[in-house]
Amino acid sequence: MHCKLIGIPLQNGASQKGCEMGPSALRVAGLAEALRDLGHEVTDLGNIAPPEPLELSHPNGILRHLGEVSEWTRVVCEAAHRESADGMPIFLGGDHAIAAGTVTGIARRAADLGRPLFVLWLDAHSDFHTLETTQSGNLHGTPVAYFTGRSGFRPHFPELTVPVDPANVCMIGIRSVDAAERAALRETAIVVHDMRKVDEHGIKSLLQDFLDRVEAAGGLLHVSFDVDFLDPAIGPAVGTTVPGGATFREAHLVMELLHDSGLVTSLDLVELNPFLDERGRTATMLVDLTASLMGRTVLDRPTRSYT
What we know:
Blueprint: E1 2-8, H1 22-28, H2 31-37, E2 41-47, H3 66-83, E3 88-93, H4 99-113, E4 117-122, H5 143-147, E5 169-174, H6 179-186, E6 191-194, H7 195-201, H8 203-217, E7 220-226, H9 248-261, E8 264-270, H10 281-293
Parallel strand pairs: 1-2, 1-3, 3-8, 4-5, 4-7, 5-6, 7-8
Helix pairs in contact: 3-4, 7-8, 8-9, 9-10
């Protein structure tokens, strides 16, 4: 496969600085080399240059960096649409606000091909706030609401030409949802598997049900992987840690099942904050997880020491 690495050094969607270093950390941790070792062609397209921010105001006065995130969404959407024409884009974040652009760009590509887009959202949070409902003002909590077409984003965000059908979104690992998001999610067809459901049913059966739907529909599958999907004990380099996340083995099993499905066409790796990492531990794990998604098996995986 032709893998295209696209750095998106956006940190304005989060409250804690450091995510803009995420793309560099993934490169230093050997992402390109790991993919090449698996036989893939890799093109590193570098980082998208920060766009000039718009001057925007909104009645919700706590919104942070609205003009910057809006313009990032536009340029990332264009890049995602362009680079998905002839390869598998792997977007190196940056905070999760990048998904407002990555998913909408891939949705446009799916529409070009006459195929539905499905989104697997691996995250502790649902990120289903609108510009009106967010109480933190951090726009990394809004991308799912935006790309599924919830109202309240225009004219502050780019016009959404191809919204993702909420029924085509599956969230796994959820364990921190605000009241406004919870109420809104009840009104949609988004499939939400929180960690209790993972504990009760096992992550394989929940994911396999979704993958069967994607295959039956002939869909493209975008995977959006937030570091806080992981338990903080194994993935500490994120500013939004929530206890009780996916274990090392659960995370690798998800990636192995995704590889077995052959359905994944694009990938986000987001919220990696190297400033909060422990000697590159989380960045290295993200590289290993991506390698599992791209075909590395247990017999191929080297043993690493963290001491």
